[in-house]
Write a structure and sequence with these properties.
Blueprint (H helix, E strand, L loop, with lengths): L10 E3 L2 H14 L11 H7 L3 E2 L4 H10 L3 H5 L4 H6 E5 L5 E5 H25 L4 H18 L2 E2 H9 L5 H14 L2 E5 L9 E5 H4 L9 H16 L4 H8 L3 H10 L4 E6 L2 E8 H8 L10 E3 L5 H4 L6 H4 L17 E4 L2 E9 L4 E6 L6 H20 L26
Parallel strand pairs: 1-8
Antiparallel strand pairs: 2-4, 3-4, 5-7, 6-7, 8-9, 10-11, 11-12, 12-13
């Protein structure tokens, strides 16, 4: 039976203590606490609803924050992980690495607005759709014969068939947005990208990117509120770039009971599943704190929210955690609250931190230093000393640089 959703829901007010405990409990469920870390990339990507992958360091640092050891992060480059975790363009047209079933749902739920952009690019490029789709067929035949290929090699080979580079690029984009081909990063380091593409059916035979859009949306939105609830509808709209109507329809059509809450970080009504609220209320007090965590650039735990970001910002201005284009900086959290930022010093190959004055005791500062040392060791495991080929990189900065704060 579809669950009730909307104005008929009773509102459960949560005071500041309960709100902060619930936020920390949510972080712990994603591996962000010493006793709750995971030993598998796939498990981490499932618990956190993906690894943000628009910047090269982000997936590695996201896994490092939630894992039991550096070997988990380096397993991102291992073939078994690459076969079970797929990188797709999805929410807000941004790359995320997800387990195959969630990748399928995220792709299918967001395909309509990404394919729309690809079709508009065809028009803007003054190409005929039939010609671009024919080039896409040539592309598929090429990948069927040769397997994964670097995008430059794809352009060169298609040129031998009389397909211009602009048309080849349009065909590549359209085929990717439609799910016919998949992106593969063949690099073995987090600071280098080797961008290749393969036929999705060959690289990920278990993935079903052709899911019905309504069903895929229901799966994606249920998973979002399961992992990140309580969240407001505005949070969910911002995170997914889906319409408010699509999100409310997905919640209303689900079989899990939805409850409404208000919290100390927002007077806006937020939603979560009743079973998760009951689970939280029954949790031992030890599960109400998350300790010190160093989160990645564009970490999913921060990017999951917009309207209710005060849950981790408190009274800090957003610019202390986000850059001028809205990307989440690499942050230092203590019990779910941002107390500073960190950066990778490329010259010294080490993590440096910058804490907000008055936000950390001497004991917390000591723990932050220890965490930074540990993250330094993990990042070094996945770093290549050779100069990255920036022509092969997804556009964006390699080094995580932060504004200088006060220590």
């Amino acid at each position: 039976m579809p669950t009730a959703f909307g104005s008929e829901l009773a509102i459960h007010p949560l005071d500041d203590v309960a709100s902060q405990r619930l936020w920390n409990w949510t972080l712990r469920r994603q591996g962000l606490a010493d006793e709750a870390r995971f030993d598998s990339v796939e498990v981490i990507a499932r618990a956190s609803l993906g690894l943000h992958a628009a910047r090269l360091p982000s997936p590695f640092a996201t896994v490092a924050a939630r894992s039991t050891g550096g070997d988990v992060a380096t397993s991102l480059f291992a073939q078994p992980t690459r076969e079970r975790v797929m990188t797709v363009r999805c929410m807000r047209k941004t790359l995320h690495a997800l387990p195959l079933d969630l990748a399928s749902a995220a792709h299918a739920a967001t395909r309509h607005y990404r394919e729309r952009d690809a079709l508009r690019a065809v028009v803007n490029g003054r190409e005929r759709l039939v010609d671009v789709e024919a080039a896409g067929d040539e592309l598929a035949a090429l990948l069927e014969t040769h397997g994964p290929l670097h995008h430059r090699e794809i352009e060169d080979r298609l040129a031998q068939h009389g397909i211009s580079t602009p048309r080849a690029r349009l065909a590549l984009k359209l085929s990717w947005e439609r799910g016919d081909i998949a992106y593969l990063n063949a690099s073995d380091a987090w600071n280098r990208e080797l961008r290749t593409f393969a036929l999705t059916k060959r690289a990920y035979p278990e993935a079903d990117l052709g899911l019905d859009r309504q069903h895929a949306t229901a799966v994606l939105i249920e998973t979002y509120f399961d992992r990140y609830g309580p969240a407001s509808l505005a949070d969910a709209v911002w995170w997914s770039a889906l319409s408010r109507a699509a999100i409310t329809a997905a919640l209303a059509a689900g079989t899990r009971e939805v409850v409404a809450v208000t919290t100390s970080w927002s007077d806006q009504v937020q939603y979560m599943f009743a079973d998760r609220l009951e689970e939280f209320l029954a949790a031992e007090p030890d599960n109400h704190c998350s300790g010190v965590n160093l989160l990645a650039h564009e970490d999913v735990a921060l990017k999951a929210y917009f309207e209710t970001r005060p849950r981790y910002l408190g009274d800090l201005p957003a610019r202390r955690a986000f850059n001028q284009i809205g990307e989440a900086l690499p942050t230092v959290l203590h019990d779910g609250q941002i107390i500073g930022i960190w950066a990778w010093d490329e010259t010294g190959r080490r993590v440096t931190t910058s804490l907000v004055r008055g936000r950390a005791t001497a004991g917390i500062r000591s723990t932050v230093r220890a965490r930074a040392d540990r993250l330094t060791r993990v990042l070094r495991l996945g770093w290549t000393s050779g100069r990255p080929d920036r022509a092969l990189m997804i556009p964006g900065r390699l080094t995580l640089r932060s504004n200088q704060g006060q220590s």
